[in-house]
Here is the input.
Amino acid sequence: MRVDTRRALAWLFSLAGLAAVTIGGRAMHLNANTVGFVFLIIVLFASVRGGLLVGTVSSIIATLCYNYFFFPPVGTFTIHDPANWFALSAFLITSVIVNRLVVAARIQAARAQQRRTELETLYALSLALYTGSLGEAAGRALTLLGAREGGLVLFDGSVYRQTVIWWNGDKGDEIEDLIAGVGRHKEPLEFPSPFGTDAYLPLLVGGKTIGVLVARGTEASRQALESASRLVALAVERERFMEEQAHLSALRESDALKTSLLRAISHDLTTPLTAITIQTEALKRRAAIDGELRDVVNGIDDETRRLRRRIDNLLAMARLEAGKAKPRREPTPPADLFRAVREHVRVPLSVHVDDDCPDANVDPSLALEILVNLIENAHRVSPPDAVIELTASRHGDAVRIEVLDRGPGLPRVDVTSDVAQRGLGLEIARGLAAANGGTFEITPRLGGGTIARVDLPAALLPQETE
Here is the structure.
């Protein structure tokens, strides 16, 4: 509206000025040269205020008035003197050239001012993005770029999962569709609007669209908008990087705290366990006489050993996770592991190894602890004197070891849930299996019970490595 008003005032000034000069020149009997200079000034001001069209029309009107009222014969458009033809032509050419030069200078000045404003805006945006919040900075950038509406939208894994960081104005379904389209095609979208241009600019980081900057009703240049979108994209990536760094730092601190706690707990528990073990040995000598006491003492001894093994397992896991220890993997026959298991647990076992089962490429001590924990867990939930089945077979490029029981089953066990639901023994088995490059899972067993399954990497045979 302001541009239309200014142009209307320029038309009014031009017509009124030309009329006033014509009437005043005739009344005061001014010579043609003086009137021509005044006409040229009127055309100059009309061009400055109204633009090319107003200046050009004013030049033509001034030429006609100059001819009709000031060149003899006056009152006609006929010119007898050839010199007057030259003067009139020179006036017309001069007025048109001046008009074009003034308009060109005005456009260049406007563009220079716009570029200066855009550079100041981008500089302010760069400072705001690195000193304030992302949403406030984006809002300030759009305001400085002259956008009437718009905002910043980020994608959460998909262009259809849009998170609004900042927005001003209405945001209908059609705008969400346009944002999703820009995110899919990774190309900016521009089209005219009643107040300027509606621009949808993708935020690209590493060839991936992470969001869209929307500027509706802006008169900023395409270059300024694209520069703003690049700055915002860098700021978004910087913020995400800082969040990831903070998360990693928290994880490192958590691991260090966990390791320290495990060490402190193991130290505090080892001393009383040693005392319990000494007292248990003393009781065993007395239990040789009393049969009922012997069963009780053996039970205490078994539980003490199991608790000590749990503490040793936790410390081993802490050292592995902290990188202070590494598994010493070597080809290990499953049959050797099963024989070692029999020596460490007092549980009825049924063992089977397939003929084509390869050796496992594992740390034998860690693999033994995996099986001991699984067997003890299976024995604890199984009926008294129930036999625990232990099998080993080839499974692709891995050795599959299964511990099968006939307990009540574990229909609600989820290996991704917390330790309280899995049990400490299962958590230790999972961690030690992962340290050996294997996987661990629990599945229901057909006919009742559960199957604890461990897949460990197989050792390559000599002919397979050639």
Observations:
- The CA atoms of residues 258 and 264 lie 10 Å apart.
- Confidence is low (pLDDT under 50) at residues 412-422.
- The chain has four domains: 2-112, 133-243, 248-321, 330-465.
- Residues 222-287 form the longest helix (66 residues).
